[in-house]
Amino acid sequence: MQDEKPPGWLPQLVASKGPRFLQIADALQAALADGSLLPGDRLPPQRQLAAQLDVDLTTITRAYDEARRRHLLEGRGARGTYVAAPKVELSSVLDLSMNTPPPPEGVDFDDLLKQGLSQVLLRADSELLMTYHLAGGSDSDRRAGAKWLEPMFGHVDCAQVIVCSGAQAAIAASILALTEPGDVILAEPISYPGLRTAAAQFGRRIVAVETDQHGMLPELLEQACRQHRVGLVYLNPTLQNPTAVTMPVHRRKELASVAQRCQVRIIEDDPYWLLADAPPPPLATFAAQQAVYVSTLSKCLTPGLRVAYVLIREAPERERFLAALRSFALMVAPLTAALATQWILDGSAATLMAGIRKEARLRHRMALDILSGRNSGAEDGLHVWLELPAYWNSMQLASVAGSEGIAVTPAEQFAIGNVTVNAIRISLGSIKDRARLQAGLQRLSQLLARRPKSLAAGVA
Q1: Using an 8 Å Cβ cutoff, are 362 and 412 in contact?
Q2: 425 near 242, Cβ under 8 Å?
Q3: Which of 114, 146, 193, 447 is placed for a possible disulfide with 156 were both Cys, Cβ 3.0 to 4.6 Å?
Q4: What is the model's pLDDT at position 460?
Q5: Closest Cα partner for 333 from 174, 147, 149, 135?
Q6: Cβ(380)–Cβ(277) under 8 Å?
Q7: Rounded to whole angstroms, how far apart are CA atoms 166 and 102?
Q8: Contact, 101 vs 382, CB < 8 A?
Q9: 3-state secondary structure of 53
Q10: Among 296, 269, 271, which Cα is nearest to 283's?
Q11: What is the spatial distance between Cα 122 and Cα 185, in angstroms, rounded to a whole number?
């Protein structure tokens, strides 16, 4: 058995540097990085380390738990705690295809989760967390939803808020509630694929309305409303998925005016508003009676919550929406809804979202540097839209990148009708480690710089 390492790696704990258990875990990680600790080294017993640092035993226990979470330590029963060997990365695929929030640096997600769940279990009746609930959310869940929507709208009447099991459920319920079979849904030519899926299942047809650099063109929207039997207009106006375009306020007002004149409803799917830098007010601000506003926690906090808040101002539309929702999603899972409510009301959601926003911007700057300005769109949100050189097409590039261990999403997956756009979406949040993301972007940049073999062979 190896001798214990002298405690030279032990930190000087400073109150201004955050929780002491995290300082200790960070010191362990730094010691591994600089060689002060090596895999297989035995750590001091927890009581001994607590005495050396003059902290309570609970602090050391939490520090060791955090270090285990980071795969830095391993327990060997009665023999003690040892520095773990480096974790082998079994997956060789660098996933740049899924829009998920990046892990925020400096935010202890595990601790937020444990603290949030402990508060939920402390304050709620466990039987109520494990039984059926009415669709639309409890009073406390709706109050949390109203608070979540305050940055967009100011004060919100919680009676106008419906709690759903994710944005996709909200989109599907809107289609069922507000359209009839054979109705047309208008959308931009490059739009969220989940809209197509829901529309196809319900027998609705999607018609594309052309765009410019600011989004859907108001005059063409009005023309389409006169030409078709339109049930809904679908818009994703902030950091649009996939183009990352944010619609300016004047365009939002123009589209809202068209919707009011033509008496058509709008699904305003707005998952990225809280991640954007000074976004314009939602369209629902300018067409309150026309809009169904959807804000999901999946893109700002974590997909695992499966909670979205839907704002519908008019009572008859809310009742129709709830009836449609009950046909396929009776309720949000009460435990996750309660956790979302706890996080929003105690400020944890704001802390987590601030960390995610900061991390997303760091990753955008990395992508901009590596991809040499090829990507378009803002420096916020979870993805970039990359226009390709003429010698690549998006399906071909996605296929070749996949064969080299990089997953990206080609434009064809977002296209409505016969739209042809030569671009790919690159998601920046699904790779947890920033160094691995950097490596993936660099490999992708190298791939973009070379011509496909089938074309290169014919070039002199």
Answers
A1: no
A2: yes
A3: 146
A4: 31
A5: 135
A6: yes
A7: 19
A8: yes
A9: helix
A10: 269
A11: 46
Q: Answer whether CATH 3.90.1150.10 is correct for domain 94-106+353-452.
A: yes
pLDDT for 1: 37
What span, in angstroms and rounded, lies between the C-alpha atoms of 370 and 70? Answer: 28
Q: Where are the domains of the chain?
A: 7-83, 94-106+353-452, 109-348
Instruction: Give which of 54, 5, 49, 3 is closest to 25, Cα–Cα.
Output: 49
H helix or E strand, kind and range, residue 407: strand 406-407
Q: What is the pLDDT of residue 376?
A: 57
Which residues of the chain, if any, have pLDDT below 50?
1-6, 90, 455-460
Q: What are phi and psi of 386, to 5 degrees?
A: -110, 115
Predicted TM-score (pTM) of the model is 0.81
Distance CA 96, CA 93 (A): 9
Q: Which helix (H) or strand (E) holds 60?
A: helix 57-69
User: Tens digits of per-residue pLDDT, 143-184?
Assistant: 999 999 999 999 999 999 999 999 999 999 999 999 999 999
Which residues, including other chains, have CB under 8 Å from residue 460's CB and lie 6 or more apart? none
b/e map 277-291, b = 16+ CB within 10 Å: eebbebbbbbbbebb
Instruction: Estimate the share of the chain in helix, then strand, then coil, as percent rounded to the nearest 5.
Output: 45, 15, 40
Q: Report the DSSP beta bridge partners of residue 273.
A: none
In angstroms, what CA-CA distances link 247 with 102, 215, 236, 244, 282?
24, 6, 9, 10, 10
CA–CA separation, 379 vs 238, rounded Å? 12
Beta strand spans in 30-175 (E): 73-75, 81-83, 94-95, 161-164
Amino acid identity, position 183? D
What single DSSP character describes residue 84? P
Distance, in Å, from the CA atom of 134 to the CA atom of 164, rounded to the nearest integer, reads: 11
CATH level 3 topology of 109-348: Aspartate Aminotransferase; domain 2 (3.40.640)
Helix ranges restricted to H, 124-279: 126-129, 139-148, 150-153, 167-178, 193-201, 218-227, 249-262
Which residues sit opposite 383 in a β-bridge? 427
Interaxial angle between packed helices 46-53 and 57-69, expressed in degrees from 0 to 180 and rounded to the nearest 10: 120
Share of the chain above pLDDT 70, in %: 94
Question: Quick one: which H or E segment has residue 423?
Answer: strand 423-427
* Strand bridging mode 406-407 / 94-95: parallel
Give per-residue pLDDT as tens, 82-104.
Answer: 998 876 554 568 999 999 999 99
Q: Please name the CATH architecture into which domain 7-83 falls.
A: Orthogonal Bundle (1.10)
CB atoms within 10 A of CB 61: 13
Q: How many whole angstroms separate alpha carbon 21 and alpha carbon 69?
A: 13
Q: Helix, strand or coil for residue 269?
A: strand
Residue with tokens 């123009």: 254
